[in-house]
User: Fold these one by one.
Assistant:
Number 1:
Amino acid sequence: MAQREWVEKDFYKELGVASDASQDEIKRAARKILAENHPDRNPGNSVAEERYKAASEAKEVLTDPAKRKEYDETRRLFAGGGFGRGRFSGGGGGFGGFGGGDGQEFNLNDLFDAAGQTGGANIGDLFGGLFGRGGAQPRPSRPRRGNDLETETELSFLEATKGVAMPLRLTSPAPCTNCHGSGARPGTSPKVCPTCNGAGVVNRNQGAFGFSEPCTECRGSGSIIEHPCDECRGTGVTTRTRTINVRIPPGVEDGQRIRLAGQGEAGLRGAPSGDLYVTVHVRPDKVFGRNGDDLTVTVPVSFHELALGTTLSVPTLEGKVGVRVPKGTSDGRILRVRGRGVPKRSGGNGDLLVTVKVAVPPNLEGEAAEALEAYAKAERASGFDPRAGWAGSR
């Protein structure tokens, strides 16, 4: 995004946050706006589409610490007309003209466009060229990279732990399929601008000052399309709905973001596409839980199984496994089974943590009740007191 646009747009206002908002506040605000105005939820709604694009731009800048710092500094530099008594012309951005001694007015849009549209040149480069510092040559203008996009998907617990390949439907700017992103009609191609030789800017001298300004012939792009594509009108980009196959790796966690390089918004006129970030939401499972890379499960057992010991059949991600319960195991004990947990990114698996929990019969009658009464008498006769030492002498 051009720094000129940074001056003209208030990204904080776009997301409804204060200029000193934390990263978490910015992300929450952006996530809400993007979800409410997503094209899939608002088909044919141009207002929602523009709101979605504006929020995406704001989020891209404000969630990147380096871009946010540069944005804040740029806004502070120009918002107050910070060049003494100079006047700026912002081309509708609300800035007066920047006047030289002879009353000449310079356009702020031209200044920023001369600095480059891709962030390749900074403000220091711009004003170094403005005052003739070092006679630096103008940098070639490069097509602008596409914006990053964000979307969300929901997985079952097993899909998240074992991994899954799934289709993802997106409505976003994408390379034009007619011209393959070049912007030129099929059978033709853009040509290098003869005026600026592909640099996108031209130099001129005004007294003691040297200026670099956008080439009027190619509008700073460095190339000319004589026969624009009929479908994208020379931009190389169209908004379309597409389905991409996404491979969710094993072990993904709830709320984790997955980056898909080059699957974001298409760049203008053949520039690289942005990236796509997929936020994964995992539905809870009725049986399994998770603690990092460890799989957790709670198994109901009877008292006699803990007292006498037994072997339990316990479910895992890959079928069932036998877990030995030692004689005299206490209620709530956690038994560990190595290597039966969630796949790790570094290879291998976490562990299976089995918690044994005594299930008490709600209604005990007949022989079972009589047998338990007999056991209780025998237990008391043996001297066993389950509350011995409990609560001290109280």
Number 2:
Amino acid sequence: MKVGIEMGAASGGTKAQVDLEELLATRLLVQGNSGSGKSHLLRRLLEQSAPWVQQCVIDPEGDFVTLADKFGHVVVDAQRTEAELTRIAGRIRQHRVSVVLNLEGLDVEQQMRGAAAFLNGMFDAERDFWYPVLVVVDEAQLFAPAIAGEVSDEARKISLGAMTNLMCRGRKRGLAGVIATQRLAKLAKNVAAEASNFLMGRTFLDIDMARAADLLGMERRQAEMFRDLARGNFIALGPAMSRRPLPVAIGPVETSARSVSPKLMPLPDASEDTRDLIFAPAPLETRQTVRRTAPPAPTPTADIIAQLSQVRAEASAPVAEPIFPLFDEAEREALIDTIVREMVEDPDAAFRTDAVLYQDFLVRCRIKRMQGEPPPLSMFRRRYAVARSGIDEETASSDTWQQALGMSVTLPEDLQAVFLIVAQAAVKGAPCPSDAAIAHAYGSHSARRARRLLTYFEEQGLVVVRTDFHGKRSVAFPELGCETAPGDPERTDDLPEREAAE
């Protein structure tokens, strides 16, 4: 399912959009000097994508905590132990809650250690919780410095390792890195090199302009243009945005940062007694009122974990009747079946990970206004595998098919769809699926892998594979008492139309 995020206006007055699904797969690097509008760009991206994907913001200055009021992000204060941060990060992936890790008030080394512990906790989450997450890291040069600074080597190594995992290995775990930096020269090259999408803002130093031009595939003489970019204007390039360098003016945002750029304001009128006002001794009560109070204590870890574990109710005014009609259980199940069948009909779905498919399923459920809690990932995998088998209603009600469903439960989840596709052909007496169809069901294009899957089923004692003198293959299911008709393993007529054309 393609979701376009509108970032602002492109050249020619057209809308500048980011393909969110492509961004999750290819990552993003944002560069611009202080005051160029990086934080504004990140805020726009976060606000526009908040309804579609889980988000995690590594916030060294506490600028993004205001997202909590508008979009329900949980603010995690980093003033706690590394073990606590790691545990909270694991709970965040499990419960799919958008968060802001507030590192404000910590020194640089503490920020590096806290961010590393949090990122590692998300990276090490169990496979069942590898849902897509947009991980935004502001001031990334602090956490992935190109050279050693005043911090200890241990802190730099831990932080750089976490950032490298995020950008290099995070995609397979559903983590999509979006990193922003003031200077490319200060950012570790192995971290910056993993991004395929770029938004380059105003910069002045020759080394940064040259590196930005290289990343965008521009000539060195064109690098001077980065000095002339206005605040909030960037040059975009990448598969999620544009195949050619595209000027983009970032649009407005709904929330604001706690810290804003300084504004000029007129000085007060000077008076003759100004010196007396400055040096006059203050009354006792005045001196007492200017004493700073201690900052509030951070929220206990137990409270944050409890907050993450709760199902957050939607804030809405009480109404006499529900806005949307209520579904009974039968209608709800029929709606789920309809959504799953629509997903199966998409040829590209076969090559998506389970986490991406489940995210698409949840979005479709919201679009259809499905009532109640959606099925968990394990149940979705099962229903998706059954739907991919293409079984008709009459055959699905037979005892033989029900027995085949019971046999498939003993297999790993990623093999159940393949088993059921072959089983339904046997139950119906249809020709054995081709290598291409079996590979497509597994999410691959490899005919060799398809043959290995059949060999695996045979080794488990579930099927018997035989090839006749004409090279046609049939698969028998001894426990079911049925067998497929002979079929040519090399044919392509049983593939989806789009796959067969390719």
Number 3:
Amino acid sequence: MTGLASLVLADARFPGGGHVHSGGLEEAVSRDLVSDVDTLAGFLRGRLRTAGRVAACFAAAAADRAARAVPVPAAESGDRSFVATADWVVLDRELDARTPSAAQREASRTQGRAALRAVRTAWPSPVLGALLAADPRPHHPLLVGAVIGRSGEDPAAAARCTGYLAVSGPASAAVRLLGLDPFAVNAALVALGAELDAIVLEAAALAPGPVADLPAPGAPVLDLMAESHVRHHRERVRLFAS
């Protein structure tokens, strides 16, 4: 089921700070690994199959747990809270473990923190408190999944939203960095539809199960480029933060 929350979160106009992140595309362009629509399509496909797949599966798991969180009275204050913090701690640590690049972990948490203010305004929920108790700078896929799940959408919607964001950001960055035809770039995005569908199905099936069973595909080139981008960003200003 797809509802308004997943559509708003996937919208490039959502004030979540995603526009300053290229998902490694800027570094790939600087190394001449991406120079046209064809090489961009290959980059996007590789990113979807690795970092995008991980993000989609964790967002789906977060949506599942947010939907099943049970409100109980707090013992002292009388406020209502959610007994789910332990779940968020496990999700947070497992996603950290699947993100070996410190630069990529920082980018994920930076985006999560940037989106938090808008999320709190639009979708206030005690679930966010439980998520932030696990880490005050939540990973972006976990924040997206928590909001979508608590909004009544299913894990598949969270997976689709997050998987799409993993490639739509770099695609948009390619237009700015290389001056590519936006119509051709969007056609390259649409061509990933079948692969995104497969990832969504996998993520939805795995969402209720143990977090340890979520996939952990490696992307060493993306990891290395993320680390290189951070070093270069310190030396001279880059257009994107990641």
